[in-house]
């Protein structure tokens, strides 16, 4: 016999939204297993080299004794920070680090955008690629090589500037550049710009490639000059990426290129008034006093990181207050 339904609707199986989300989630994971597998090595390396070293922050609050180890060494609270801030060299390093980075950030932004604009005006693709390669190449040179290139120019005995420029052309006396602290802010600025501007300009050049060509065509029809097109189309289109890059650079304002300030200057003590920065200061303390200065070095590094974090939050808050859409987060 057939069972009568008496007109009743067939039973339905209802699935809750949470169950449906779980099914979709598992399905997405299953479908993207190769991508997650590729993610694992990067996650492990990031965890090992970015998160595990955070354990070392406790060194800043201890008087390290190699016999007792890190965990067994006595706690000293904020004594390392107090000793650090009472050191005159620490304040010199802090001042130099902030001033150098302020100049590098401001002028680097202008030079990078200018270089990108010049590259974008080259219509010949082959010539454009050649110039881009020339601009980028210095970035990939080791600071050791850059240091010897600078030494070839500034060496007192056989340097190009002393022998071929000062003595031959101007008839002036030779200058011991590695003992003249006053000249090095300009030298370091030139070396840093030569090494980094080309690479940074590629970021802005890539952003320019995403600008709608129709905007330039409409501007040309309206009779706008090249300068007006740059002023009213290109620069406003690069505004967000310029703000993001600046905020990221501000986060590193208490950090510095160790190779630039150590290798290029040959770590000359006579240049410390204008070349000593936090990174070289910490390194010099570690090499001079060994484990006895581990606490001071860790305190300097921790202070550097905390101040950089505060600067990123402050810069982003200012940008968010002015224009919320342009903020990094």
Give your account of this protein's structure:
With 329 residues, the chain is mainly alpha-helical. Helix content is 67%, strand content 0%. It contains 16 helices and no strands. It has helices at 17-31, 33-51, 69-72, 79-86, 88-120, 125-136, 143-154, 160-166, 184-209, 213-221, 226-237, 239-250, 258-262, 272-275, 278-289, 294-322.
Structure summary:
It is a multi-pass membrane protein. Helices cover 67% and strands 0% of the residues. With 329 residues, it is an all-alpha fold.
Query: Low-confidence parts lasting 5 or more residues at pLDDT below 50?
Result: none
Helix content: 55-70%
Distance, first to last CA: 69 Å
Calculate the mean pLDDT score and round it.
84
Shape: globular
Radius of gyration based on Cα positions? 29 Å
Characterize the main sheet: none
Tally of strands: 0
Discrete helix count: 16
**Could you tell me the strand content as a percent range?**
under 5%
The topology string of helices and strands comes to HHHHHHHHHHHHHHHH
Structural class: mainly alpha
Pfam family, one: BPD_transp_1
Family: Belongs to the binding-protein-dependent transport system permease family.
Protein name: Sugar ABC transporter permease
Keywords: Cell membrane, Membrane, Transmembrane, Transmembrane helix, Transport
Looking at this protein, list some descriptive labels.
329 residues; mainly alpha; globular
């Amino acid at each position: 016999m057939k069972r009568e339904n008496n007109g009743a609707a067939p039973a339905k199986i209802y699935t809750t939204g949470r169950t449906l989300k779980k099914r979709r989630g598992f399905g997405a994971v299953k479908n993207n297993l190769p991508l997650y597998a590729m993610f694992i090595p990067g996650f492990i390396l990031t965890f090992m080299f970015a998160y595990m070293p955070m354990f070392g922050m406790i060194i800043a609050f201890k008087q390290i004794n190699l016999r007792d180890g890190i965990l067994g060494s006595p706690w000293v609270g904020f004594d390392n920070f107090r000793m650090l801030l009472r050191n005159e060299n620490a304040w010199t390093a802090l001042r130099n680090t902030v001033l150098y980075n302020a100049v590098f950030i401001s002028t680097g932004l202008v030079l990078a955008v200018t270089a990108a604009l010049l590259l974008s005006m080259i219509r010949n693709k082959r010539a454009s690629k050649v110039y881009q390669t020339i601009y980028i190449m210095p970035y990939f040179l080791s600071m050791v090589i850059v240091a010897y290139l600078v030494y070839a120019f500034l060496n007192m005995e056989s340097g190009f500037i002393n022998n071929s420029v000062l003595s031959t052309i101007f008839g002036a006396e030779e200058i011991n550049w590695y003992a003249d602290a006053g000249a090095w802010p300009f030298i370091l600025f030139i070396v840093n710009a030569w090494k980094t501007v080309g690479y940074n300009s590629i970021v802005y050049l890539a952003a320019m490639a995403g600008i709608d060509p129709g905007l330039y065509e409409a501007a040309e029809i309206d009779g706008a000059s090249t300068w007006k097109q740059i002023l009213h189309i290109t620069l406003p289109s690069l505004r967000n990426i310029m703000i993001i890059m600046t905020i990221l650079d501000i986060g590193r304002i208490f950090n510095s290129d160790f190779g630039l300030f150590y290798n290029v200057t040959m770590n000359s003590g006579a240049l410390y008034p204008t070349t000593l920065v936090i990174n070289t200061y910490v390194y010099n303390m570690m090499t001079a006093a060994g484990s006895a200065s581990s606490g001071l070095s860790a305190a300097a590094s921790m202070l550097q990181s905390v101040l950089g974090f505060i600067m990123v939050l402050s810069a982003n808050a200012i940008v968010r207050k002015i224009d919320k859409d342009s903020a990094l987060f």
